[in-house]
Amino acid sequence: MPGYELFGAQERKEVNDVLETGILMRYGFDGARNGTWKAKELEQEICKTFGVGYAQLVSSGTAALTTAMAALGIGAGDEIIMPAFTFVASFEAVLSVGAIPVMVDIDETLTLDPKAVEAAITHRTKAVMPVHMCGSMAQMDELKAICDIHKLLLLEDACQAIGASYKGKSVGTIGHAGTFSFDFVKIITCAEGGAVITNNEAVYKKCDQFSDHGHDHAGKDRGADLHPYLGYNFRISELHAAVGLAQVRRLNEFLTLQKRNHSIIKNTLEKVEGLTFRRIPDPAGDAGSFLSFFLPTEDMARDAVAGFNAANIGGNFYWYDNNWHYIRKWQHLQSGSWMHRLHDDMKKQVMHYTNQAFAMSDAIMSRCISSSISLLWDEAQAQERADKMAEVLRKVMVGNRVGA
Ligand SMILES: *Cc1c(COP(=O)(O)O)cnc(C)c1O
Predict the structure, then answer these.
(1) Which residues line ligand 1 (CB under 6 A)?
(2) Fold topology of 252-399
(3) Nearest CA owner, ligand 1 atom 2
């Protein structure tokens, strides 16, 4: 999963380039920076690597989502349809622009069920936001068709799926805009950072301005910039961009290791009778950062988690009990625990949508375990882990049959 595991000489070299100049900011200081523009270089590298027209770096994936929404004109009272299984940042960003997150059920792809999306559309729906969870992808053809018919924006949260693709296109490049996160545990890291990617020049320009207090960046003198719109400070620093520049150039190296280790684990677990796997809309495009699988029942999934823990096999996530990734534990959202006062209408609408039943998602998530894939395992280590996992899972399957 994470690029931080292989942090090394390339990353240090890029950071040192910045330390040599002492210009840690991405804008201005043209003379003193001596030709060192890491953020700009990283944006160009992102466009090349993912086959997209424009990239705007920002300070986090959360900031990227907020920036993308602002640039797409998503705002007060707009409903954004998103999955009940994601990271909290996805709905935090929706709320940050005054819009309403409308959570809907996922299916066995572990992201948006197109039928649930269609059923949730109202006259207030403005966008659909698939989240490409755990290295794999949403059903983009189906979602794009729904967005086209209903004239909705399609914003891809690709924060967890850098390097994944769908039918030959990088995830994040298929909708009107997409976002990446480069936080410390993502597929590649800047320590902290994110990007909005888009093929729409006007959307990109707005992202460029929004993330830097509305500066139009039209001339050489920052002090003389005009501010066509309000913005915020979501800038990335040159130091962070430098780390990301080294990491994005190593993406293929990371993906090769990740996919190899993913295959070793999957090939072994496939032989465990009764175990089923996450449905991957385009298997060739899976980034391989996690292997997600289903036990036949919730009890068996819990037994498997306990079994992995007892056998000291780390990195297995049972999202159903996780405080960050599944709606069941988003009590702060469901109870409306804001620090600041919201508009009453907004609060009512948010709480209405987040306090729905998600029976279909519960039935899937309660049986699901996602096992993270390390870049540090050699083939023998990956195989050893796979064998240990299979042993635990077989015991769980048999134990249950005996008990039944
Ligand atoms: C990590 C993540 C984000 C937010 O990224 P940060 O850089 O941590 O702010 C958004 N969405 C998803 C799905 C993520 O996993």
Answers:
(1) 60-62, 86-87, 89-90, 131, 157, 159-160, 181, 183, 194
(2) Aspartate Aminotransferase, domain 1 (3.90.1150)
(3) 159
